[in-house]
Write a structure and sequence with these properties.
By secondary structure, this protein is mainly alpha-helical. The protein is 74% helix and 0% strand. The protein has 10 helices and no strands. Helix 4 (59-78) crosses helix 5 (95-114) and helix 7 crosses helix 8. It is globular and about 45 Å long.
């Protein structure tokens, strides 16, 4: 890591309770309330396009770019920067690096799960910010993964708890005849984006 990236890691490690569930939930809810129509439509579009991408041989070329754009979409919502649906397709500027991030992260997490599950859980949580650093700061794929790992490892238990709560909140919509998922599911991504913005 260069000096700028090392400083970012140090700030993240020293951040005051970045994974505090209350503030992250509040930031996510306020973002959703401000731009609910755009965010809900964004999730519907992302879901449809992702399914189409997975069903084609070009999926590996499409999904990483979509993930980058989707992370930027979340950050704009959290930062009150008027996210737009076009932001979802604005992540193809670093395509080769995003493909590398997608593949390396997927392979290493899978290997971690095979090795007694716990290493996979650790890596999956530790790399939760990797796509945000990649899309937001435009660092290389490995640097983004390493910064995320170092920042989150310092508060890994709290990060795990936040992710667990955000997943539960995200899927509460199932209780509302599935339709509620279109409102509750975005809360998961927004809560993680909120934690990233606080780190």
């Amino acid at each position: 890591l260069n000096s700028e990236q090392t400083d970012l890691v140090n700030r993240g490690i020293q951040a005051k309770e970045p994974f505090d569930i209350g503030p992250c939930l509040s930031l996510a809810f306020n973002a959703l309330k401000r731009d609910i129509l755009t965010i809900v439509l964004g999730y519907i579009i992302m879901g449809i396009v992702s399914v189409i991408a997975v069903c084609t041989i070009l999926g590996i070329l499409i999904l990483p770019g979509l993930i980058v754009g989707f992370m930027r979409f979340h950050l704009k919502a959290i930062r009150n920067q008027n996210p737009s649906l076009s932001d979802i397709f604005d992540g193809f500027d670093m395509l080769s690096q995003s493909i590398a991030l997608f593949l390396v992260q997927a392979i290493l997490v899978t290997v971690g799960y095979i090795l007694c599950i716990l290493p996979g859980v650790y890596l999956a949580v530790a790399w939760s910010f990797a796509w945000f650093y990649f899309g937001d700061k435009k660092y290389g794929f490995w640097e983004s993964m390493e910064i995320s790992r170092r920042v989150i490892t310092a508060n890994w238990g709290w990060a795990f708890l936040l992710l667990l709560v955000s997943i539960i909140v995200g899927y509460l919509g199932i209780l509302a005849c599935v339709i509620g998922l279109f409102v509750s599911l975005p809360m998961h991504g927004l809560m993680v984006a909120a934690a990233y913005s606080r780190a």
